[in-house]
Amino acid sequence: MRVDDRLIHGQITCAWLSFVNANKIYVVGDQLANDPITIMGIKYSKISGIDSYLFTVKDALENLKKSESDRTMIIVKEPETALNLIESGVKIDWLDVGQIGYKEGRKKVAQTVSVNEEEARTFVKVKNLGVAVIYRQLPDHSPSDFIKTLEKHFANLEA
Question: Rounded to an integer, what distance in angstroms lies between the CA atom of residue 81 and that of residue 87?
Fold first, then answer.
């Protein structure tokens, strides 16, 4: 699973899909699934041999149960959606934090990631569920412990 507010883009199609050996992409988010621009973007982001879907959390959970044998790359826009999926039973070994853009109220904590304190605490909750939270822009980059990165920027960071 990857947190990336760009959703499907060149790095996903050219590097990540082959790295995770995916045959499907699920873009998941309750607001995203009802956003006409996102719906159109996913509809027209055809990748040869890869099926792309846009789901609410509930629909993603239902479809993941039906297609457990598929290699599905899950992309979410924010950490809260990732936590919701994991708490609802989606099994992953690691959560990759790729890009979360800056906006007011967020701190830049990595080259391509800005978060606020609530989002940072959400990542800690994910870690406390036994999931490694890593920062890695591309598959050929070395992953780093994203929680350690957050601890440098936020005091007393606990879930």
Answer: 10
- Domain annotation covers residue 158: no
Q: Report the phi/psi class of residue 89: left, alpha or beta, with left for phi > 0 and alpha for psi in -120 to 50.
A: left
Are 114 and 101 in contact by the 8 Å Cβ rule? The answer is yes
CB 77 within 8 A of CB 113: no
Q: Which domain holds residue 124?
A: 2-153
Does a structural domain hold residue 40? yes
- Any residues with CB less than 8 A from the CB of 140 and at least 6 apart, and which? 15
**Strands (DSSP E) found in the chain:** 2-4, 24-28, 51-55, 72-76, 94-99, 107-110, 113-115, 132-135, 144-145
List, for residues 15-66, the tens digit of each pLDDT value: 888 888 888 999 999 999 999 999 998 888 878 888 899 999 999 999 998 8
**Is 159 inside a domain boundary?**
no
CATH number reported for the structural domain that contains residue 135 in this entry: 3.40.35.10
Domain count, the chain: 1
